[in-house]
Amino acid sequence: MKNSILILILFWMAGAGWLKAENPNALFAKANSYYSSGAFDSAAVYYDSILHLGYESAELYFNAGNARYRLGDIAAAIYDYEKALKLNPRFEDARFNLQLARLRTVDKMEAPKRSVISVWWRDLLRSRSADQWAVISTVMIWIAFFMALLYLFAGRRNLRVIAFFSSLFFLFLTLFVLFLNIENYRINQNSREAIVFAPNAYVKSEPGHSATDLFIIHEGTKVKVLDAAGQWYRIQLSDDKQGWIPAEAVRVI
Amino acid sequence: MEEKSGKNPQKKKRKRLVMRSILVIGLLLISLGAARGQQADLRAEVNKNTVEEGELLRYTLTIENGEERNLTPPAFRDFQVISSSRSSQMSVQIVNGRQEIKKTLKITYLLRPSGMGDKVIEAAELQSNNGTLRTQPIRIKVVKSGTLPKRKAPGGADVGGFPKKDIFLRASLSKKEAYRGEQLLLSYTLYFRSGISNYEMPASQLNGFWSKEVEIKKPEVKTQNINGVNYRTAVVRKLILFPQKSGELLIDPARMTVDVQYSFFDTRRIKLASNAVKLKVKDLPPGAPPEFNGAVGNFKIESTLSSEEAAVNEPLTLRLKISGTGNIQLIDLPEPQLPDDFEVYDPKINEYISTRGDVLSGTKSYEYLLVPRQRGTYKLDSLLFAWFDPATGQYKTAHTRSYEIRVSGEANKSAGGKNAVSGLSKEDIELLDQDIRYIHTETKLKRSGLSYFASTRYYVLMLAPVLLFFLLLLIRRQKMKAAGSAEMNRQKKAARKALKKLDGLAKKELNDKDYFEAIPNILWDYLGERIRLDRSEQTQEGIRRKFESLGADIARAEELESLLDNCRAAVYAPSQAGLSRSEMLERAKQWIHRFEKELQA
Predict the structure, then answer these.
(1) Measured distance CA(B374)–CA(B407) in Å, rounded
(2) Of A172, A190, A208, which one is at a domain's C-terminal end?
(3) pTM for this predicted structure
(4) Do A103 and B469 touch (CB under 8 A)?
(5) Cβ-based neighbour number of residue B543 at 10 Å
(6) Interface contact flag, B376 A57, Cβ < 8 Å
(7) CATH architecture for segment(s) B162-282
(8) Domain boundaries, position A238
(9) How far B375 CA sits from the closest chain A CA (Å)?
(10) Could you tell me which of A177, A138, A25, A81 has the C-alpha nearest to residue B452?
(11) CB A34 within 8 A of CB A46
């Protein structure tokens, strides 16, 4: 009750443009102090307000996830942790907390065995976000550029040889990272992921409530969204099972 | 009193064989001598105690295990013997593993009483190995003709032997044709005219049937007239049968023993066998629905759920009930399909069976205990039950209603809850005691939705070094071009310059020493400009190496060397100098021309 009133007030303030004046960093600090004092519901509302203002960061999602975890809303916590990891795939704390939150979900499924190479390749692609890969490729290409300059204008012969080969090396590295970047971006675009928010949902053989029930999934389970038809998503679980689910049962990350 | 049909036929066969061999042995024993027979017995019977004048009376003497020659029949002083007949019978019985041979001889006399009033049939006597046996004298009352109530002659009853037709057992089925699994009634009716003091249930083997006894507390006695004879009838046994296989089924004759009371003193035990009954059993027609599992009859299915709202771990009761008539005891109820989120315990089964109205009917109920383990909304689909209705000859299907169960509450309050432990890996279990990591207080908030990748800034930063590189390359090339043309010019001018210098040398007033020192210097300058020959390379080897790298003829180097040697000789030893100043100059000029030609080739 207290919670919903607070939300209402915050929305009203946001609507009135009051919050726009508020510094999102100040809101973040405020939310953190609520969290540390144990007022997780208020903290969650403040974290949300920052998102409503149009700001985000891996830490913001992480903290919001913690607040939800403390409130027992595991599906929302998992959603937030996934968001944090999407912004920063190397966020160790988010990965750890996500693992803990997953323990409290109902569906435990084993991913089917895949070849070592494909796992390694996927892990490499996902070890950085698209933006992080972009930064790396930018740095690489500039190093390659300066090496090329050195090659062109260096007086000493030895230096020019070293500069030439390292420029070439960094150029190749740039192209490789660029390829990873595009691949990563493409995968992220093609495979949207979603978290089940409904306590349980029947997965159907085709879109429509009258279709055959295939299996049941529960809140907090991460699914891959393969396709959409009307208000239905075709989803795939980590154990490769597929089916259709009402769109309102899940929230796309 | 349920009998499962179909005993092992092989076993039966073997038993029959044993019986037969025993019978053979028994007959052998009899032929060895009647002296070894059982206890002798003598009985006398009459068919009636009161007769009308002139009416015939039947008197029967039954000798068991005795010889007729040892018999002294009654004198029949008050009677006239019309005829006498004999019938004998031998039977082997096995009692407690010992065989008993019974030889029965019946002598029947047809008597006509002479005169009216009380008459007596004297005692008969039989000498046997255990003394003399005597029957009781029988009193007969002879009344005037027409005083006894007239009975219509029962169809041959008094002709064809008394006990056979006066009492008999009949088996009857309620139907001649039935479907497999359809219920029908088998009843055994006893027809009798004398009083019955006691009887045993008729029994026969029922092969191919599942049966259910209909309890008869007290047989109801009715009267039935058959061919003018009034019989009293009583249904002594009723069985509800369910044929289990199709085809022609035969129900063997049932056997029973009855104690018939002919008079207050005269009770006799009679063995009866019923008729055999045939039944044609039809197979169930094709087209059974998939839910059909053998139920035949007429049924109704119902379900009740204790509540559609539940909390996690709060048990619900689902009751399924089938009621109706038919083989209800033989059928199973459909099993409810529930997701794994429910624990379903084995059902408690209640059965209530009734045979009222000679029809097997009843209810069968399954009570399932359902314990929801997760919150959510779950469907309990309706259950289908199919049966065959023999009355209409069609399959019928009924279903229960479906339910939607809403489970509320928290499945596992803490991460260490019992429910959470299932399906965890080793690493996961280690994680169970841990708590989430604390929030981060430092962050860099960015406008959401802004991605660096695919932004203009990114493209600019990525393309800039490439463009810059090519730009610089272009600039450098331009510069190099300029530098290159300057060099070419210098090279081109070098020969002209050197030739000019040599010509100028001739006009200058110089002594020999200066003159001959100037020529090599002009050549060195020329080579320095023309082929970039360093000062360090102004040696015989340096020149040769340079010329070789330029692809020039070694002959030119040798010529140059000799030219330089000549100049050196003219400076240091003028007396030995072979060439004049002008000749030397000419040779130098000639060499430059030749060298230029070679370089341009």
Answers:
(1) 7
(2) A190
(3) 0.55
(4) no
(5) 22
(6) no
(7) Sandwich (2.60)
(8) 192-252
(9) 6
(10) A138
(11) yes
